[in-house]
Write a structure and sequence with these properties.
The protein is mainly α and 234 residues long. The chain contains 15 helices and no strands.
Length: 234
């Protein structure tokens, strides 16, 4: 039995129907055309752990699948291989494979679950200029990768890039970018509230409402209301 046949035995028609609605796959929606097998992410993670000898070439094949969960499988294989590798050249290959296949990392869960652990982790001690280039991309998911990859930096107490990339994305038109930027600013606040608030006071008035709400979600209620009313002084 091939790996993909074995994987598809985990499929559920009931879950597939739920995911089709949840991930907005209708015409004109952000996930239009995506197809689901109905396999939950914990089950995909477990499958990766049980099949750690999967080659990068097979992972690449999974990433290019028309099925959402098979793309997640391929990406989580890269996450797992990167985490376990002690070979810098192998890490380079994993990172390059991920970047070369951005077009298949085409839904918010695929981005959020995987990019910090490959892209963010790889660039942590390297040149981060690719993130700034990706933030200017016409491709929605590439822009989301540019901001969400910062989660790896933030969790390691480095907020040096999140504000500049957030600034690039302040006027982005897509709600899924507004949410991602707000989320990263909220996380940055947990590590360095002084720098985060300085950024917020300077830019909150030009933020889309959703971005602002996500960013100030954990602020004290009084301060949160001041931001929402526009009465915070820079």
């Amino acid at each position: 039995m091939t790996l993909q046949k074995k994987f598809r035995q985990l499929a559920s028609e009931e879950f597939a129907e739920q995911y089709q609605r949840f991930f907005k796959t209708g015409k004109g929606e952000y996930g239009y055309g995506d197809v689901f097998l109905g396999i939950r992410t914990p089950a995909i993670r477990a499958f990766v752990k049980e099949n750690r000898d999967i080659s990068l070439s097979l992972a690449k094949k999974c990433i290019a699948s028309r099925f959402h969960e098979e793309r997640m499988l391929g990406l989580l294989i890269l996450v797992d291989k990167y985490a376990r590798s002690r070979d810098e050249s192998e890490k380079d290959k994993i990172y390059e494979l991920y970047v070369d296949n951005f077009k298949y990392v085409n839904n918010w869960d695929l981005v959020d679950v995987t990019c910090p652990h490959v892209v963010g982790k790889h660039l942590f001690e390297k040149d981060r200029s690719p993130l700034y280039q990706w933030a200017l991309s016409d491709h929605l998911w590439t822009r989301r990768i540019a901001i969400v990859s910062n989660w790896w930096f933030i969790r390691n107490n480095d907020v040096s890039d999140v504000f500049e990339i957030s600034k690039i994305l302040l006027k982005d038109e897509h709600d899924l970018i507004h949410k991602a930027v707000g989320w990263m600013l909220r996380e940055a606040g947990k590590k360095d509230m002084k720098k985060t608030e300085a950024f917020m006071k300077r830019h909150y008035s030009s933020m889309p409402r959703t971005m602002l709400r996500y960013a100030i979600e954990r602020y004290p209620e009084t301060k949160r209301k001041k931001y929402l009313r526009g009465t915070i002084k820079a």
